[in-house]
Amino acid sequence: MESILAPLSAAPATLLFAILFAFGLAGLVKGVIGLGLPTVAIGILGLVMAPSQAAAILIVPSLVTNVWQLAAGPRFGALLKRMWPLLVGTCVGTWAAALLFEGVNMPWAPLALGLALIAYAIFGLSAVKFTVPRHLEVWLNPPIGAATGIITIATGVFVMPTVPYLQALEMNRDDLIQALGINFTVSTLALAGGLMHGGLLRPAVLGFSAIALVTAMVGMFIGTYLRSRIPPQVFRRCFFGGLLLLGCHLAIRGLL
To answer: Which end of the chain is more exposed for a tag (fewer CB within 10 A), N or C?
Structure first.
């Protein structure tokens, strides 16, 4: 696998192309459906580098795009008051996992990433809808957040199980998009802290993150333009179908 610890100027062309492609496609997906940037980017880059290295590149573009997303809604204060136990659980789970896995070789990380993508894709493709009653949120928020944090450190992807959980809360569209932005922003900051503690968030990564940010923003612009021209259900099926195939490939590679 390629390393991102060398300076940007010394990076092989194949690595730079992988970053350009991964974040351009991830930004396009996020522009069309409002999520998927870390899932797509980490999934593709997981083919050429360790998930932890891909997660380090992800920090800057993820933070910028998610702050933009959370700032776009009108109910930041109300949603933060409702979600803070979930966010605290995410931070605790992320940092606890970072301490637990510190210095531990994780050859199973590609398998874990593959399984996370498969689970997310199956959920997205299924017609099953879950509903969480409002009175259960106070009990479910902390463990759901903690589970997300642990999966984040293992795979670099912070969508499971928080995204299905937030969708099950039956928020209106604007609240859901802003809630996802808030959660993704906190997850990104928590992940940054965990990577920094593990020595993976180094100055050499900043050049790769800058490239990733530019291509992700271009992809988001194109995706936003395409949003009104592609039937959402068609794109959604293609998106989750692609994630399912990618997850299967990573899982099989991890087993072998």
So the answer is: C
- What is the full DSSP assignment across 167-188? HHTT--HHHHHHHHHHHHHHHH
Q: How many domains does the chain have?
A: 1
Report the alpha-carbon distance of residue 237 to residue 124 in Å, rounded: 8
User: DSSP state, 9?
Assistant: G
Cβ(82)–Cβ(137) below 8 Å: yes
List Cβ neighbours of 200 (8 Å cut-off, separation of 6 or more).
52, 53, 55, 56
Residue 170 inside a domain? The answer is: yes
Angstrom distance (rounded) from CA 184 to CA 213: 16
Q: pLDDT tens digits, residue range 59-107?
A: 889 888 888 778 867 788 899 999 999 999 999 999 998 888 765 456 6
- The model carries a pTM of 0.80
What is the rounded distance in angstroms from the CA atom of residue 156 to the CA atom of residue 153? 6
23: tokens are: 């974040």
